[in-house]
Amino acid sequence: MPVMPETRDERIGAPGDPGIQRGAAVTLSSRVRRVTAPNPGAMTGPGTNSYLVGAGGQWSVIDPGPADGGHLKALLEAAPGPIRYILVTHTHQDHSPGAAPLKAATGALLLGRTTPHRHWQDPTFAPERELQDNDRLTLAPGATLRVIHTPGHAGNHLCYLLEEERILFTGDHIIQGSTVVIDPPDGDMAAYIRSLESLLREDLDALAPGHGTLIPNPRAAIQALIRHRLRREAKVLSALPTSQPADLATLVRRVYDDVAPQLHPLAERSLLAHLIKLESDSRARRLADGWTAAS
Ligand SMILES: [Zn+2]
């Protein structure tokens, strides 16, 4: 569950990216190909991106996407060699259910992290091994992935850095053209912002998101996302009453007045995530019938 289309949606490709082509593999570099699943929609933007990453005769898939026969066939056809690993960024239903059938078809090792949460999760996900922050995987000679744990959108979210090309596969931590829903309790706004900040320490050339095209200038893109979330947080703070509590339905109209009303139920989830962060910062107070500013 990624998309909270509260920001302008730009579906134009980045330099070096021909744009989303559903059903066909797009070559992004000698080590990276993208196949976009046929699941476009309000929650998935142009569809979920599956990436083939590798070199020579050894390839891996990052995020096999939904368990869609046509998509998995397209992935198998686009793979220049046998698939050795299947990696997932997180286990939302648009990212990992294709893992089990792809594993059955290829015998590849399935790696990622499980989650104790149930909402919008893929219950079939069963990795051979739980990946840890800073794990390194040699996908092929000359294709090395480093695992970066990035909780926030989901507690089990991982990004993968292709060290030879400094491309970061960002799943739903960062997507192109929109922002992601932070849906408590699995979604955690404080962790999300910390995970964004941690990526500023990395030397990155491009972001390869779970939805949309390549994002150039990673540092500027990550800084803009942090600013966007902190601006929204400031708007939440200024909308909080000092006496009579306001409920989520009232607050969402004040805080997300730039978002179409039909998206307010989704926006309420991210609003709640902001409020929980502010509560833990002792800046908001939760009462039985709503929220106030902490005095
Ligand atoms: Zn997601």
The rough form would be described as elongated
Q: Helices and strands, in N-to-C order?
A: EEEEEHEHEEEEEEEHEEHHHEE
- The third-level CATH topology of the largest domain is Metallo-beta-lactamase, Chain A
> What is the rounded distance between the termini?
35 Å
Largest sheet: 7 strands, mixed
If strands are numbered along the chain, what order do they take across the biggest sheet? 2-3-4-5-6-7-8
Q: CATH first level of the largest domain: which class? A: Alpha Beta
C-alpha Rg (nearest Å): 19 Å
The amount of helix comes to: 25-40%
Contiguous low-pLDDT stretches (5 residues minimum) are 5-11
How many domains, as an integer? Answer: 2
Class derived from helix and strand content: alpha+beta
Query: Bound compounds, please?
Result: zinc ion
Shape-level CATH architecture of the largest domain: 4-Layer Sandwich
